[in-house]
Design brief:
- Chain B: Belongs to the TFB4 family.
- The complex is a heterodimer of chains A (603) and B (287).
- Chain A is an alpha+beta fold and 603 residues long.
- Helices cover 54% and strands 8% of the residues of chain A.
- Chain A has a seven-stranded antiparallel beta sheet, with helices on one face. Chain A has a two-stranded antiparallel ribbon with strand order 8-9.
- In chain A, β2 and β3 form a beta hairpin.
- In chain A, α6 packs across α7.
- Chain B is α/β, with parallel strands linked by helices.
- Chain B folds into two domains: 7-105 and 114-223, Rossmann fold (3-Layer(aba) Sandwich); 236-277, no CATH class.
- In chain B, the strands form three sheets. Chain B has a six-stranded mixed beta sheet with strand order 3-2-1-4-5-6, sandwiched between helices.
- The chains are: A alpha+beta (603), B alpha/beta (287).
- Chains A and B meet through α16, α17 and α18 of A and α1, α2, α3 and α7 of B.
């Protein structure tokens, strides 16, 4: 009822609220910036008047399915489903809607210079569109192809990009996905100490704070509890720094003394209970069925040097038990630090706000705890596995191996099929001569072979080895062969014929070549033709190809005479490929028309 | 065991030449009127001696390719003194005896010239070369020369391709000199892939001249010499169902077997192909 150029499209349609809904019959009117739906029944509440600006995309069912549906989706999730009486109607509306959406959405999107507005034929996310546009901008050859085919209407956008998924993905993944990991160096406990005054300065950056919170859950907990109720952040960190200073002096007794005075300081100086709990839980999760052999190297209890090779400065006098909680073990600290660094960044929060960092870390830890607690299934599986491994072997019945049986095909089948294959290949490369039949029995053949050998043994090599005339002929022949090769294939093996052509011709040839590749790719992939869509596609491609065909002929003629031969050598395979495609197309059309003579309704 | 190469500095043109001689008796008796095995041998022996003369450190190893077995018949570096090529003759005779004894009794009526075990001798040559590679940092540059005439054995296709690829990996060029009636597709591909020279001499009684001009060149000199190149290599495939050479066809996506028509099931690997007629236009690909 309307053709594409018109500004208004009016069609009968039913509006459905969902796919199953029978729908309200009415009239759908599409204009450039809005669509309206008026039901046939004037009393029905289903009336719509929606601008295309709010419509973000449209979906539709494929041709040939039960219903001809068109679904217009909005940004907020609302959608309008229309069912049409037949597919041509729906397709007209669909195309109109596509261009209307593109027009109205154009304002918010960057368009490349050649005004290549990609025609939306499917639901595309903004990221995908961006990727495509970026790829087009980067690669000018691709852009030329795109312009030629998609804008020229020969290929659709989806088809063009269908074969280039890898390119798009590559582009996408080029974006750096790596994030900076946690620093491996431990926060130095040696503060900047002024030699003159008694001041000790600590530097705390958000990065360091993150590490502290990750490594010492008690500190994190204390932060959440104390700040901002009991003290300000600065005070908190001052106290913490004091605690660190005390630790660095390794004066346990002084540490105990200060802890006794200041409650909050005590938190920093004591052992970290939360860490202890975590460690205990980890130990429980160790798989007892893992068979690890211990040998002398693992015996670190009796080494003369304690603490894994780190020399201890202070003597090993046993302190009062009241001081034990204040002793800090370097190895423990190192292990904890290493575990945190390996885990990497667990949270994504910005580092500026200390409180939010602390909370985020606390949340992740809680989540982990909850997950572990609820992992009953894992426990069960472990118990089962343990019981299985500790079974006494000779009391068990033999168990079937849990493997699928191999199915090895007989290799002879494969080779036999190769056999005739190779024979026929040979048959093709025979230059006129047929295969010699050997009508001699094996024994005789061997006899004659051995005779030849003994002949030489007794007579020696023939003298002269080779006749001089024959040698001369051979040399001449070889030289001619080599020089003719050089003439045909070029002086320098790296140089190609293309370089010797004038620039314009070269560009044209390359352009035609890449377009032919693209067209042929799509042409051949649409065979065998089973639907109308493929038929139209093949026809369009064939028309495009037949346009290129005469251009190639022209190029051949326009070149200078000394280059003509080489250019025709280059153009020949292109023409052959096109000829093959045309022949196939014509044969197919003929078949189709012969068949449709029997069946009146086409296929 | 070859004596260790002296610790002199090896010049660029020292080569190790592995020669694979085709001793298929059926082939030689079928070609008898044109060219006899004895003439062939005399050309080849003169050539081998001249290789040994080119450089004191050159090595030549000859393998015989029979129809039932392959074997080493000559190694120039065995023994204390470099030997002349004629010393391969007794060994060759022995080899022919051995090969004959391995053939089956009932094969009296000849039904075409059979193929010789090219894949076997290629593999043996490559093994020898590997041993040389591992003998130390100083070793001559190896290459393989196939003097072949028998037709290509289709059952050896996979094995030959494997040896070709392994030669390519170790950077050992395979030169081919085809003395038979027809071109050999296997050897064409071998030389193409490994960077060797493929030649089918027009005049067999000038064989020595061909060998000395083209195949005596060592690998270093090939960088600045121009050697004959074949015009093209026949890479065309044949379909597995009718054995026709085709340019366009259907390929199984599992095992890459080629068919000229649409099939329901791949005859090589047994995988079933999907339906051609579907409602979904994008699924109608060539299988």
């Amino acid at each position: 009822m309307a053709d594409k150029q018109q500004q208004v499209v009016v069609k009968r349609a039913r509006h459905k609220s969902s796919v199953k809904d029978p729908g309200t019959p009415g009239v759908l009117k599409l204009t450039k910036d809005r669509f309206t739906f008026m039901p046939n029944d004037p009393s029905s509440p289903v009336k719509h008047n929606v601008e295309f600006r709010t419509i973000k995309g449209h979906k539709f069912t494929k041709d040939g399915t039960k219903q001809a549906l068109l679904n217009l989706t909005q940004d907020q999730g609302g959608n309008y489903i229309f069912e049409f009486e037949n597919f041509p109607d729906r397709n007209v509306c669909k195309d109109f809607v596509a261009s209307a959406i593109a027009l109205s959405g154009e304002a918010g999107r960057t368009v490349p210079e050649k005004s290549a507005v990609p025609i939306q034929d499917e639901q595309l996310s903004a990221a995908e569109m961006e990727r495509r546009i970026k790829l087009l901008q980067e690669d000018s050859d691709l852009q030329k192809l795109h312009k030629q085919f998609v804008i020229g209407g020969i290929l659709s956008e989806a088809e063009f990009w269908a074969t280039r998924k890898k390119l798009l993905e590559q582009n996408y993944s080029r974006r750096p996905k790596q994030r900076v990991a946690l620093k491996n160096d431990m926060w130095s406990t040696k503060p900047l100490a002024d030699g003159q005054s008694n001041r000790v300065t600590f530097n705390l950056t958000p990065e360091i704070i993150l590490q502290i919170f990750a490594e010492k859950p008690a500190v994190r907990q204390a932060y959440l509890n104390f700040v901002p109720n009991k003290m300000t952040e600065k005070e908190f960190w001052t106290k913490y720094s004091r605690a660190e200073y005390l630790h660095s002096t390794k004066n346990v007794i002084a540490a105990a003394a200060e802890a006794a005075e200041d409650e909050e300081l005590a938190v920093f100086l004591k052992q970290d209970d939360m860490l202890v709990n975590e460690a205990r839980k980890k130990i429980r999760q160790v798989d007892p069925t893992l068979d690890m052999e211990a040998d002398e190297g693992d015996d670190y209890m009796h080494l003369p040097i304690q603490d894994h090779g780190l020399p201890r400065n202070d003597n090993k006098d046993v302190l009062d038990s009241q001081y034990e909680p204040y002793r800090r073990s370097f190895s423990q600290h190192l292990n904890q630090h290493a575990a945190v660094v390996l885990q990497g960044r667990v949270i994504d929060v910005e580092l500026g706000d200390t409180r939010s960092v602390a909370e985020a870390l606390a949340r992740t830890k809680h989540a982990e705890l909850a997950k572990d607690a609820s992992d009953v299934y894992l426990d069960k599986e472990r118990l089962e596995r343990i019981s299985r491994m500790t079974e006494i072997e000779d009391l068990q019945a033999p168990r079937d191996p849990a493997v699928a049986p191999l199915s090895i095909k007989d290799p002879r089948d494969y080779f036999d099929s190769q056999q005739a294959n190779a024979f026929s290949t040979l048959g093709d490369t025979v230059s006129g001569a047929k295969q010699l039949k050997c009508s001699v029995s094996t024994r005789e053949a061997y006899c004659s072979l051995k005779e030849c050998i003994s002949e030489i043994k007794f007579q020696g090599l023939t003298e002269p080895t080779i006749n001089s005339e024959v040698a001369f002929k051979v040399l001449n022949g070889l030289a001619q062969n080599i020089s003719s090769n050089k003439y045909h294939l070029g002086r320098n093996p790296n140089e190609s014929v293309l370089d010797s052509l004038p620039k314009i011709t070269r560009e044209e040839l390359l352009l035609h070549w890449s377009s032919i590749q693209e067209l042929l790719k799509h042409f051949w992939s649409s065979y065998p033709i089973t639907t109308k869509y493929l038929l139209t596609k093949a026809t369009k491609l064939k028309d495009a190809m037949s346009q290129i065909y005469p251009k190639l002929q022209e190029i051949k003629e326009s070149v200078q005479s000394d280059l003509r031969h080489q250019v025709s050598l280059l153009v020949q395979p292109m023409l052959q490929a096109l000829d093959a495609a045309f022949a196939h197309y014509d044969a197919d059309v003929q078949n189709r028309s012969a068949r449709s003579g029997e069946r009146p309704n086409g296929f | 065991m070859s004596p260790p190469v002296p610790s002199k500095i090896l010049t660029d043109d020292v080569s190790l030449l592995m020669v694979l001689i085709d001793t298929n008796p059926h082939f030689w008796s079928s070609i008898k009127p044109h060219f006899s095995f004895s003439k062939f041998l005399s050309h080849v022996l003169a050539f081998l001696n001249s290789i040994l003369l080119l450089n004191q450190l050159n090595q030549v190893v000859v393998l015989a390719t029979g129809i039932n077995s392959c074997g080493y018949v000559f190694d120039s570096s065995s023994g204390s003194v470099s030997q002349r090529a004629e010393s391969l003759l007794p060994k060759l005779e022995e080899f022919a005896e051995n090969d004959e004894s391995l053939s089956e009794r009932d094969d009296d009526s000849g039904n075409g010239v059979g193929s010789s075990l090219l894949s076997g001798s290629l593999s043996m040559a490559l093994c020898y070369i590997q041993r040389v590679f591992r003998s130390g940092p100083l070793h001559p540059q190896p290459r393989i020369l196939c003097l072949h005439g028998s037709p290509d054995g289709p059952g050896q296709y996979v094995a030959i391709m494997n040896s070709i690829f392994s030669a390519q990996r170790s950077m050992v060029p395979i030169d081919s000199c085809v003395i038979g009636i027809q071109h050999s597709a296997f050897l064409q591909q071998a030389s193409y892939i490994t960077g060797g020279v493929y030649l089918k001499p027009q005049q067999l009684d000038g064989l020595f001249q061909y060998l000395a001009t083209v195949f005596a060149t060592d690998l270093h000199s090939r960088n600045f010499l121009r050697l004959p190149k074949p015009v093209g290599v026949d890479f065309r495939a044949s379909c597995f169902c009718h054995k026709n050479t085709i340019d366009m066809g259907f390929i199984c996506s599992v095992c890459l077997s080629i068919f000229c028509k649409h099939q329901k099931k791949c005859s090589t690997c047994g995988s079933t192909f999907g339906q051609a007629k579907t409602l979904d236009p994008s699924a109608s690909q060539q299988r």
